[in-house]
Amino acid sequence: MAEEVLSQSEIDALLSAISTGEMNAEELKKEEKEKKVKTYDFKRALRFSKDQIRSLSRIHENYARMLTTFFAAQLRTYIQVGVASVDQIPYEEFIRSIPKMTVLNVFEVPPLDGRILMEVNPNIAYSMMDRTLGGRGGSVNKVENLTEIETKIMSNLFEKAADNLREAWSTVIDIDPILTDFEVNPQFLQMVSPNETVVVISLNTTIGETSGMINICIPHVVLEPILPKLSVHYWMQSTKKEREPEEIEALKKRVRRTVVPLRTILGNATISVNEFLNLSTDDVIQLDQKIDEPMTVQVGERPKFYAQPGKQGNKMAIQILENIQGGDDDGE
User: Where in the sequence is the domain holding 205, given as residue range(s)?
Assistant: First the structure.
């Protein structure tokens, strides 16, 4: 049993009470000998140590960063995902805590036995679907009336997100997440017994102006075979895995084959709709770029270089003059 540590002010007050006779030292010794009883709720059995909870939190903080990057690329809007809390509670309590109608993705994670659950708040799920279909990311909660097309779009999106889960867990175990079920009513989903302890990782998620939670529910029975690997001793003893030369060369080849959009900004101009409609051959639009000023070259949406125009053979070309200092991700 852990000992209670007193602050200096509490120690001073205790010594003062003994010296003035308000408290008897013999009574204190008698109280120490009495057994202290602590209430234990077997329905809320704490089967994960604080050490293991911290390891799970660390794994899913990495997963949250991966989801932020993945969803930002898929939905092309502002995304922020972060771990809000990691708790161990009975499965029944988790089911009661989530909305009566929500988006539930059930995954098998071989070689581990059992299934894990990803619950996505309907507001978040609909915002994702709206962005996927080219909308602004608006959210409407009508999850009980999902069409087959909406169900397919959502399940495909979260199935792809499971690849990041594989990478996040790779430092502990190589899992292969497989989406096996998509459900909207938690009452129809009975993964484990109601009193089974589960660990719930809550991810605070923001998509544009819409916010909500993504909850990952992992039963104790799933993690039981690898609990020793979730201790600090395992993390301290494990050595950093070095990449093989073949892996490094394969990564280099992939990077070289990556296609990125490159464009040169000749200048900008503002005209009215009426002027635009009346444009004809040989009309001139005056840009805000001076001919003796270098042009900006963008890689994707980021300004990376200054350049000047010219010709290479019979083709138009640009000559890179210098990098833009202080730009986004200099040197990458």
Answer: 50-241
